[in-house]
Input
Amino acid sequence: MNFLAHIYLSGDSDFLKIGNFIADSIRGKQYLNYPLEIQQGIVLHRAIDTYTDFHPIFRKSKHRLVPNYNHYSGVIIDIFYDHFLAKNWNLYSDIPLEKYAQSFYKLLEQHFEILPLRIQNMIPIMATENWLVKYRTIEGLHQILTQMDRRTGYESKMQFSTVDLKESYIDYEEEFTLFFEEIKKYTTDKIPTL
Output
């Protein structure tokens, strides 16, 4: 799962969302330096990642990309799945995606001082380019994947993966839909135990 799914799966808690969002920038036990609800968001993020990585539907989606993208396949599927969440957002939320995204960017700005430096540097770009809404279109997805590919020195070839997405679009969307129902249930059950 990528940014949009992680935020969505955090439910209604602002601090759970923040923790879930910043988790990839927090190493080991550094999460203990944050307020409790942000800690819980970081723990939730890690649980979501573990659940996702070992889920047979996610692995099926990922396996399709391995020949072309090797160990970057999982990252690409995370982003493909965010695409389907954004595209079908009205099935999952009564709040329009544009409003949801703007509300989240504002939340990050309000709590800017507690965010890791890497996230602080990323937020202006993320908000200006409106990444969470950009996931909705294949063109937007291609732009995000190209930016990510640039960070790997174009070694990942992620920018070309939208071709693979188009070739197996129905399969990926069906897999996402099935998987997302299961991970929603998983996180709904998990959050009260954090």
Summary: The chain is about 70% helix and 0% strand. The first helix runs from residue 3 to 8. The two ends are 19 Å apart (CA to CA). The mean pLDDT is 96.
